[in-house]
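User: Could you walk me through two proteins back to back? I'd like the raw sequence and the structure tokens for each, with a short line separating them so I can tell where one ends and the next begins.

Assistant: Of course. Protein one, sequence then structure:
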Amino acid sequence: MTAIHIQGLGTYVPERRITNVDLMSRVDTNDEWIVSRTGIKARHMLAEDENGSDAAAKAALCALEDAGIEAGEITHVLAATCTPDYLCPSTACILSGKIGSHGAAAFDLNAACTGFIYGLETARGLLAAAPDAKILLVGTEAFTRRLNWNDRTTCILFGDGAAAVVLTNGEAGRPRKRLPAAARLRDVRCGADGRQYALLTVGGGTARDYRPGDPVQDDFYLQMQGREVYKLAVRSLSAVCEEILERNGLTLDDIDLFIPHQANLRIIEAVGDRLKLAADKIFVNLDEYGNTSAASIPLGIGDACAQARILPGSRVLLSAFGGGFTWGAALLEF
């Protein structure tokens, strides 16, 4: 197996932008309360006629253009999401039809907010087994469709969006529009603790035996035990970052930029403090998007590139945590 590279990147956020002030008309909250506790100032919401697969398709087509690869050349379509259009068929199958990747293997990954990192690990395994594969990996979420707007502790946190990458074996290749250079995927580490699954759930599956005409219950929507999630998130993010660095003979001094999952500014700051990482090395964009779950990390890569926070030669550390309870980290070299 030769070096695995991210050859193209594409992002999409819905046009509809919901500020904290906008939320005051539908939930008992205010801008100061939200910003002080989360760092979030706005989030984006899908239009009524838009689904997660539509957002994924827009991001995917941009990534394919960036990579200089036609949809028909893609061999695998992976969709990281915990808010799929349907339980069946997969969002990846719907996506492949929308972009024209007919005949490509297509399936979803659900590791919640860690989905993109899990997707990188899955792509790495597929490329080891099939070195000529061309893989489209998309993180896409429609989380505003699964929020209880009567619960001000959770409905303020999440937004919708999608981002996609194309991964192949081989050389870095041609120049790109959205990446300063093709990014080599140096390593990925993933973990989970299923004993903690009840800390963060989104209903709609078969654990509840709904019958035609039954009203949905609160567990149909996102439910989260915030304090426990915070403690586990800080511990798991810090530990997996230290693990992947040690495994690769690196220290935080070797890292040019850290892109953590954008869930809550307090979590990001606590992880930075625990790792003793300078604030100017930590990328934050959750003030604009909120928590976009599996789309969070690739949206961060896109914004960091657009802001010239990632340059040729940059070494970037990614890390995420999510429901399950899941966690993961990845190392990119541009």
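----
Protein two, same layout:
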Amino acid sequence: MEVAIPINNELDQRISDAFCIFDHHGDKRIDIREVGTVLRFLGCVPTEQEINEVIAATEMEESAGDVHLSKFMPYVAQLLSERKMEPASPEKILAAFQVLDPEQKTYITKEYMSKMMMEEGEPFTQEELDEMLAVAIDPITGNIPYEFYINQLMHEPANSIYDLADKFVTMKPKDTKRSTRRTGEETSPI
């Protein structure tokens, strides 16, 4: 018999919905290899280390290799409320491109960008690089006009997962005291 997992707010619902897309058996479990995919689907930008931390914190003890929604949802909600794995701001991305463009040409060559993405920091896979270049490269010049590319990246949904997390953190429990007003000698609930 399956135990119901309480969905307490819109943030929990969004996490649950994303998780369940990758729950191929409908049993509220995903393979640990799907954790990064779920996080990215939510709009997070995790490093491999952060993905491994989520796996370590949520992997089922009785079924190694699986993550259950009941552990994943509250853990990820907490990370989101702390604004972990949040995408970089447009200003940070622009500053990073400007470091790669000391001559201020306002573009990066495909070759240089490929080298940087494959060899520096947390390297992209070839598939990730191909996906990025497909969007980033100007088909006429063959270069990456990075301000245009940043504008393409910055389309932010109206209700991002981080906006929901902020709302979730700032929600206060409703005051359980009943308001009263004086009417003559009696008090009555409002």
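The beta strands are 29-31, 66-68, 108-109, 143-144, 180-183, 186-189.

Let me know if you want the two compared in more detail.
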